Amino acid sequence: MRAQDLAAEFPTVTLDTPALEAARLLADRDLPGLIVVGPDGLPCSILPGTQVLRLAVPAYCQDDPALARVVDEAHADRFLRRLDDRTVRQCLPEEPRELPVAEPKATMLELAALMARMHSPLVAVVDDGRLIGAVTLQSLLEHALRP
Questions:
Q1: Which structural domain, as residue segments, surrounds residue 49?
Q2: Quick one: which H or E segment has residue 48?
Q3: How many whole angstroms separate alpha carbon 106 and alpha carbon 143?
């Protein structure tokens, strides 16, 4: 099976999309991440949901998880409000990484290798200068585990 067979339509965001809007899209659609597109409509980054959390969770809680226990429940439940005036651009790592993008003819093993190497839960599939969809880890595993 090839990437073109596995690729499904997938929501995109831009660098200027509000981070809270991206978080809502992740939650509402139960997505592992989002494709970030540039002005040309082509992928410029992949935003895993965990990167949104990195911006929302206070650094002191990330550095020492025991400190997260001392925050009262009322405040702990509202940690995503830290995203209020932030954008997707601010959620992305400072150092750009290789972009998990595949051609339509990529095999399932090529997709799996790319996901594993990039620690990415999804791969954007681009054909002839346009985004045709994405392959998620869940979709890849479902197809790979079929008898």
A1: 3-144
A2: strand 43-48
A3: 14
